[in-house]
Write a structure and sequence with these properties.
Layout: E1 10-12, E2 16-17, H1 23-52, H2 59-88, H3 100-103, H4 105-131, H5 134-138, H6 144-161, E3 168-170, E4 175-177, H7 183-210, H8 214-218, H9 220-246, H10 254-257, H11 259-273, H12 315-326, H13 332-336, H14 345-350, H15 370-376, E5 382-388, E6 397-403, E7 408-416, E8 419-422, E9 425-427, H16 430-437, E10 442-444, E11 447-449, E12 453-454, E13 461-462, E14 467-475, E15 479-486, E16 491-498, H17 506-518, E17 529-533, E18 540-544, H18 551-556, H19 563-582, E19 595-598, E20 601-604, E21 616-617, H20 631-636, E22 638-639, H21 641-656, H22 669-677, H23 690-699, H24 710-728, E23 731-736, E24 741-746, H25 779-782, H26 820-824, H27 863-868, E25 890-892, E26 897-899, H28 901-913
Parallel strand pairs: 1-4, 5-12, 13-17
Antiparallel strand pairs: 1-2, 3-4, 5-6, 6-7, 7-8, 8-9, 10-11, 14-15, 15-16, 16-18, 17-18, 19-20, 21-22, 23-24, 25-26
Helix pairs in contact: 1-2, 1-11, 2-4, 4-6, 4-7, 4-11, 6-7, 7-9, 9-11, 11-12, 19-21, 19-24, 21-23, 23-24
């Protein structure tokens, strides 16, 4: 890999070598370089574009692909395009076409950068193609060893290639001195040979490790092509270096002078081998076309306009595009390209995309499961087409499913060279083949069945052309979730895609279970279901897109979420759960992570574990949501409505814990199971209101029969939500006396009350039981809280009877003061009509001026009223009871109003300056 020599220069390699001035040779070399450049540069660009179309490529991958593509293009310009023009214009390229004579240090940078990245690029591209998921390669913790391979490859390549670019140019002598046979240069080339050999061996080992098992069987032709081309590229690179070290090839031969360019050709083929999209990757929405349409490549031609997008880019077209670059027509690689090349053209066109076969027929139902197909076939003679993946077959098999007199029959539709064969009849088109049997009927096991009615697709059966996928947004129980668009009304949707390896396995079964459940329900607090797609892989589930993410994410971000908003979300979740239970459905996965937000509306989601039954037996050997699982499930193995209520109680805890954390986050699953079965429950979050705490503990009751139903939970939450909303609105009462008029405004009650301290029942015996105050109502009981003393409480746990209250006439004086309970509890007083205080302005006793006691300072404000909100003297106080709630914010406890000290001082100073105090 030496530099360029002009016609009057000499190349010093131990002996003088006269430059070859043959015009024909220069033209041939220049044309070869230009052909290589004009073929390889578009290939690199289209390769980058094709990879960017894949849904699993994220922003970091875009940057890496862009950088490596730029390096590739610069290398091809450096090694092919410019040397080609220089050769044509009477400048002879020598030994690889490098031109440091003209560009000096620039060549060192370009050559070092390319050679350092070319092997890294080859490793990344081939590994992406084989593993099918970029994140599996580089962005998971267990794949850190692949990062080490990439970094070591880059560092080793830099060390290997930098000395090769060190040329000393003497402009006075007009010659180039290189170190081709210098001992240091020979050692450097030996090092490069060993390094590249190790890199390629590691690369091949990684590929074999990634593709072990099922993938080699499913995509044997693509894997063989990748392995063969990678091996050829390795031999070419190592062979070129070996030639430079030991000089086996003639130095003046064309191959010897251009060994580096020949190696470059094989590196380009590695790019071509990555064009094949992995099986089951989502593609454009209009790919669903007739089976006879022309194939559309997903690599280079995927970026170009096309009239048909039905078929994927198979290995035979891929090979036809590139084989003229380096392989003879009888190469073994060509024979491995595709087994369909030996078939006639008609059959080859129909078998190109054997793993994703689809028919544009209204009665083609794709890979619909047998139990769903049997439900669609109602009357005798109903028929449809179904595809099934069977063990030992690479391609899906077509079946004509017919409803017989006693049971459902399936007739195999075979794909042959001339088209399709069924019951001894062959035709190039499936529709015409079936129409042939419509008037004649089909004999199956001595039973003749008449084809009467084709069963069309249902309301929820979509096809791939109805959906356009955009970007990945998350993962579900068995697949990946993408954001997409429903083409019929341009509505944004969430599309759940099962993995390609689960085409006919548990993934499809689980997806159809979820689809069967979701299509039965329609409620504002449940994610809306639009349909499922099983006409070909990948299989998709289309649902409503909730733009604001999950409740767990909202709580985890630490944003300010008010108590009223948290209660409102719990209430909406309870409404959705009540609807499911009313429809005899168990969700089995109630948690904050499965509650999605669309604005202010909460919707229950993720119905992968949902079952449309009242009792469902589970396998405890399989993984379970231990932290949300009720204790009785571990004993009986059955889930019921009460288990959903228990999980709802855990979700209530999630809603109010600040900062957010997972339930029992400090314990492992085994410890959680042991503690919960022993009766342990998590402590109450400090921000949870007392009535919410009571409801949560009811949901956690150890006895499932004592837990509230979803309807009772919803009703309780609606009451709590209404009380909170009423407390948010200030209540105003207008008071009138003979001398003045003023308003009293009730401020909003505090949303975050301190957590109550509950005593154990054993401690109640230490309390001195006094029944002398049974004429007063217990404040804890009145506020809906749990009283730790129970029946031993010294206060009454019921509204007092009339006989237990003093007569109204004895304390009529107190009617001049508003009732504190009436104001604080929004018009509700435990004493009712027997209360000694006034329930509203209309019940206030009008006191004339002559009865006012010591009204000597009417221009000053009563300190008792200012600090405590009430005054024992009522209207007979000598000071004015002006209201300052709007000036002085106050917090409410169970007995008195205590204003904030700083706010009081500021208010008193303002009033003092105004002369009011």
């Amino acid at each position: 890999m030496e530099g360029l020599c002009t016609n009057d220069s000499r190349l010093i390699i131990g002996e003088e070598v006269q430059p070859d001035d043959s015009q024909s040779k220069r033209l041939i070399i220049g044309v070869v370089y230009l052909i290589l450049a004009f073929i390889s540069i578009p290939i690199c660009l289209f390769d980058c574009l094709a990879f960017c179309r894949k849904p699993y490529i994220n922003q970091s991958c875009y940057k890496l692909l862009t950088i490596t593509t730029i390096l590739d293009v610069l290398n091809l310009v450096n090694n092919a395009l410019i040397p080609g023009f220089l050769s044509i214009f009477n400048v002879t390229p020598c030994n690889g076409g490098h031109w440091t004579v003209y560009f000096g240090f620039y060549h060192i940078l370009i050559w070092t950068a390319y050679c350092s990245a070319s092997e890294v690029l080859a490793i990344n591209r081939v590994m992406i193609f084989v593993s099918k998921r970029w994140s599996t390669l580089l962005y998971e913790g267990r794949r850190t060893w692949l990062w080490m391979i990439v970094i070591l490859t880059y560092v080793g390549a830099c060390v290997a290639w930098v000395p090769d670019a060190k040329y000393i140019y003497d402009p006075n002598a007009g010659v180039i001195y290189d170190w081709h046979f210098n001992q240091m240069h020979v050692f450097n080339n030996f090092f490069k040979m060993g390094f590249l050999t190790t890199a390629y061996v590691i690369m091949l080992a990684c590929i074999l490790y990634q593709v072990k098992g099922s993938m080699v069987k499913k995509e044997s032709s693509q894997i063989k092509i990748s392995l063969i081309t990678l091996s050829i590229a390795a031999l070419a690179d190592i062979g070129a270096l070996g030639y430079m070290v030991v000089g086996y090839l003639p130095k003046n031969s064309f191959v010897g002078q251009n060994a580096g360019v020949i190696a470059e050709l094989f590196t380009v083929h590695i790019h071509l081998s990555s064009f094949e999209l992995p099986t089951g990757e989502p593609t454009d929405s209009d790919e669903q076309q007739h089976a006879s349409c022309k194939p559309r490549p997903n690599g280079i031609a995927a970026c170009l306009p096309s009239t048909s997008r039905h078929e994927r880019f198979k290995a035979d077209e891929h090979f036809e595009l590139t084989r003229h670059l380096r392989f003879p027509s009888n190469s073994c690689v060509e024979r491995l390209a595709d087994d369909t090349r030996s078939l006639p053209p008609a059959a080859s066109r129909k078998m190109k995309r054997d793993d994703e076969f689809s028919l544009p027929l209204p009665f083609f139902h794709g890979a619909l499961l047998d139990e769903d197909v049997d439900k669609l076939l109602v009357s005798e003679g109903d028929y449809l087409i179904q595809t099934k993946y069977e063990r030992g077959h690479m391609r899906p098999r077509l079946y004509l499913v017919i409803k017989g007199k006693e049971r459902t029959r399936r007739v195999d539709i075979q794909r042959v060279e001339s088209g399709f064969r069924m019951c001894g009849k062959t035709h190039s088109d499936v529709r015409q083949l079936i129409e042939f049997f419509v008037p004649r009927g089909i004999e199956i096991s001595d039973e003749k069945i008449t084809l009467r009615r084709p069963v069309p697709k249902g309301k929820f059966q979509l096809v791939h052309k109805d959906i356009k996928l955009q970007k990945k947004i998350g993962s579900g129980a068995y697949g990946t979730v993408y954001k997409g668009v429903l083409n019929r009304d341009r509505r944004p949707v969430a599309v759940k895609r099962i993995e390609s390896d689960n085409r006919n396995e548990q993934g499809l079964v689980d997806m159809m279970k979820e689809a069967r459940v979701m299509q039965l329900y329609d409620h504002p607090n449940i994610v809306k279901f639009y349909g499922y797609i099983v006409d070909r892989s990948p299989y998709l589930l289309v649902m409503e897109l909730c733009q604001d993410g999950s409740v767990e994410d909202k709580l985890r971000t630490g944003k300010n979420v008010s108590t009223a908003r948290r209660v409102d979300m719990c209430m909406q979740a309870a409404r959705g759960l009540e609807y499911l239970h009313h429809k005899n459905c168990i969700h089995r996965d109630i948690a904050a992570r499965n509650c999605l937000l669309q604005g202010t509306i909460l919707k229950l989601a993720d119905f992968g574990m949902c079952r449309a039954t009242t009792v469902y037996k589970i396998d405890l050997a399989k993984p379970q949501n231990v932290r949300w699982l009720a204790p009785e499930v571990w004993r009986s193995g059955e889930t019921r409505f009460c288990t959903d209520v228990y999980a709802f109680g855990v979700m209530l805890w999630e809603m109010f814990v600040i900062p957010y954390s997972s339930p029992y986050c400090v314990w492992k699953a085994a410890m959680v199971k042991e503690k919960v079965m022993a009766g342990y429950r998590m402590p109450t979050p400090e921000s949870m209101p007392d009535n919410m705490c009571t409801l949560m503990k009811k949901c956690w009751d150890h006895d499932p029969a004592r837990r509230p139903t979803a309807a009772e939970v919803r009703n309780e939450l609606e009451i709590i939500n209404k009380v909170l909303n009423d407390d948010e609105t200030p209540q105003t009462a207008r008071l009138e006396t003979s001398s003045m008029q003023y308003s009293i405004t009730q401020p909003p009650s505090s949303q975050h009350r301190p957590a109550s301290v509950y005593l154990e029942m054993s401690e109640s015996s230490e309390i001195n039981l006094q029944r002398s105050r049974k004429n007063e109502v217990c404040d804890r009981w009145r506020n809906g809280q749990m009283c730790p003393f129970g029946t031993d409480c010294r206060y009454a746990h019921e509204y007092l009877a009339s006989s237990e209250l003093p007569p109204r006439t004895q304390d009529a004086l107190y009617r001049t003061v508003l009732c504190r309970h009436f104001i604080e509890n929004n018009g509700r007083c435990p004493y009712g009509e027997r209360c000694m205080y006034a329930h509203g302005p209309e019940q206030l006793r009008k006191v004339p001026n002559t009865e006012r006691r010591g009204h000597s300072v009417p221009d000053r404000i009563c300190h008792s009223f200012l600090f405590y909100g009430t005054c024992p003297h009522g209207n007979f106080c000598r000071y004015n009871h002006l209201h300052l709630w709007q000036i002085v914010p106050r917090s409410l406890d169970s007995h008195v109003r205590i204003p904030k000290l700083n706010d009081v001082r500021q208010a008193v100073q303002d009033l003092a300056m105004a002369g009011a105090i």
